[in-house]
Design a protein that fits this description.
Blueprint: H1 10-17, H2 19-33, H3 36-65, H4 70-82, H5 87-101, H6 108-132, H7 142-180, H8 187-215, H9 223-251, H10 255-285, H11 316-337
């Protein structure tokens, strides 16, 4: 009797009923199979190593270029520190202030150090994103790889600056517009301005996530999936910031948190942010339009090898038969030999 098919589990029924749940499960499986946590740990290490020198050099250069536009420089600085939760934003703000003040002291060695750490960080990020897209590993030319990673680092930096400028400029323009029309002191107008600011911030985050998911992997990917996943990334990033702000506020209350609060906060925030980026990328990679049928392995042709055994003598069965026949024949001959002879009658 054939075995009856097993009854579907509750999770299997839920996945069949809710496509979004099935997508989340498939994304989680892709993230795990492609070593998401390991890559997130590597990205976190290089993030901590590269963040301070990159910020120092970037704002030193920005301070020299935008010396005549201090308001724009302040908006960019405010946008960056606003994206970092809790007291970590204050620490990064202090780093930026120091970089702007010592802009002239940043020399060639500082720039080279920032480029070295930044390219290492970008290389690990690109490898992690490519792994989530299940792209085959490559061993490109070292010079070519370094140049592409440098261009990707510059492109990501420009995308971040653009998002910060859009968010900060939109808030400033909205407040100025309310003052011009005489609604600056109206509560409902301020509320609408706050909603507009949140939406503008989400738009800025969406632009950055689209760039990260679609343009940073080694090989081209479907932009349609990246656009959809970036929406989840933008919303999730805001939620993650709020959660991390509560967490960091609780951590920094301890004695160890007071001493090591900034570095602990940076590492925790970078690790969870890296994991979130890789999961969103896995979500984009497991979309229906990106599913590829697994190649069916063709079995190798059957090889028939006849097992022929050659023996010089009879087989065991035949030998046993011959011995039995010989014994029987010998017994008959013996009986005939011992049979008494009859004497002839006289």
């Amino acid at each position: 009797m054939a075995d009856e098919p097993a009854e579907p589990t509750a999770m299997e029924k839920a996945r069949e009923r809710y496509p979004w749940l099935d997508h989340v499960v498939r994304a989680g499986a892709r993230y795990t199979e492609r070593h998401g946590d390991h890559y997130a740990a590597a990205i976190t290490y290089f993030s901590v190593l590269a963040l301070v020198p990159i910020l120092m050099v970037a704002f030193a250069v920005a301070g020299l270029i935008l010396r005549s536009q201090p308001a724009l420089l302040d908006q960019i600085q405010a946008g960056i520190t606003a994206q970092v939760p809790g007291s970590l934003g204050t620490t990064i703000n202090d780093v930026i202030d120091q970089a702007i003040k010592s802009a002239g002291a940043v020399g060639v060695f500082g720039l080279l150090g920032a480029l070295y750490s930044g390219i290492g960080w970008m290389g690990n990020l690109r490898e992690a994103l490519s792994e989530q897209w299940a792209q085959p590993p490559e061993t490109p030319n070292v010079v070519k790889k370094t140049i592409f990673d440098l261009l990707a680092l510059v492109g990501l930096g420009l995308a971040l600056v653009l998002s910060f400028v859009v968010s900060a400029a939109g808030n400033a323009f909205g407040a100025l517009l309310l003052d011009l029309v005489g609604l600056g002191d109206q509560g409902w107008a301020r509320f609408l301005l706050g909603v507009f600011s949140v939406l503008l911030g989400l738009l800025a985050n969406w632009l950055v996530f689209v760039w990260v998911i679609a343009r940073l992997p080694r090989a081209p990917v479907a932009a349609r999936s990246a656009v959809k996943a970036a929406i989840i990334g933008a919303i999730g990033f805001e939620v993650l910031k709020q959660v991390m702000q509560i967490y960091l506020a609780a951590v920094t209350k301890s004695a160890a948190g007071v001493a090591f609060g900034p570095i602990i906060g940076l590492m925790v925030f970078a690790f969870f942010m890296s994991r979130f980026i890789l999961f969103v990328t896995a979500w984009a990679a497991t979309a229906k339009e990106n599913e590829q049928e697994e190649p069916v392995e063709v079995p190798s042709p059957a090889i028939i090898r006849p097992n022929v055994v050659v023996r010089s003598g009879p087989s065991p069965v035949a030998a046993a038969g011959l011995v039995s026949a010989g014994a029987a024949l010998g017994g008959l001959l013996g009986l005939r030999a011992f049979k008494p002879r009859r004497r002839p009658h006289l």
